[in-house]
Write a structure and sequence with these properties.
The chain is mainly alpha-helical and 69 residues long. The chain has one domain. Helix content is 62%, strand content 0%. The chain has four helices and no strands. α1 packs across α2. The chain is elongated.
C-alpha cells in the first residue's frame, strides 16, 4: 500500500481522475513502467518526478528524526 500512497503523492491532482493506483499494483510486472505511470500523468524520464520522490523520502526521514528528539 505504501507504493500506492507514494504514487498518489507524486501525481498531480488532475492526473488522478479515473486512475486507480491499485490497478497498477495488481498488474505487477506485466506492463512496461511507462504504461504503468501514464494514467497518472507521470514520466520516469522526467527529473522533476525523481526530485519530488526524493523530497518525499527526505521528508519521511526528517519526520522520523524529529520523533527521536
Amino acid at each position: 500500500m505504501a507504493q500506492g500512497h507514494g504514487l498518489i503523492c507524486l501525481a498531480s491532482d488532475t492526473s488522478l481522475a479515473g486512475a486507480d493506483p491499485f490497478e497498477m499494483l495488481k498488474a505487477g510486472g506485466s506492463m512496461h513502467h511507462k504504461d504503468h505511470l501514464a494514467p497518472f500523468g507521470l514520466d520516469a524520464g522526467d527529473p522533476a518526478l525523481w526530485d519530488k520522490g526524493l523530497d518525499m523520502i527526505f521528508g519521511f526521514i526528517d519526520d522520523l528524526e524529529a520523533m527521536e528528539a
